[in-house]
Amino acid sequence: MSWMKFSALLLALPFLLLCGCSSIDTHQDPSVDLSRIKTVFVERRLADDHHIDQIITDELTALGIKATNGPLTMKPDKVDAIITYTDRWEWDFKAYLIEMGIRVRDAYTDKPLAEVSYYRPAIINKRPELVVHEILPPIFKNRPVNSKVTINKVRDPNVPDSLSEPLPSKEK
Question: Using an 8 Å Cβ cutoff, are 23 and 118 in contact?
């Protein structure tokens, strides 16, 4: 191996280690037609400092689903499904999202209908808005996606933005 190739490989190694791979796993009850879901309540986690519930609500609205969010005690009486989520953040000079899970449950029977999980163990990552935009539509894949509606940017000023991808532009 020539010295030039070795030097290039040595320089690229830190970038390869920092980038990492992401994985998305989706599980859905095959007997359930999620296109019947018209209204959803997104349960806000008490420890959520990143407004993930609002991001999920905005994405559901973009998918044409009427969505509200808040603590479970604020759930409206007439909703078709309840969405819960988990998020795991790491800190290494900045906070970054390493893992997210979204679960859709029937509002009346509490039966799990669908679940999606995202995992990316790397410092260079996607903002939560982009992660939700990537992982939520496959659950509701039979719905037409409204491409003109984009996600509102809700950011915690204490959490710096990721450098990996810009937010979609807002169109009206």
Answer: yes
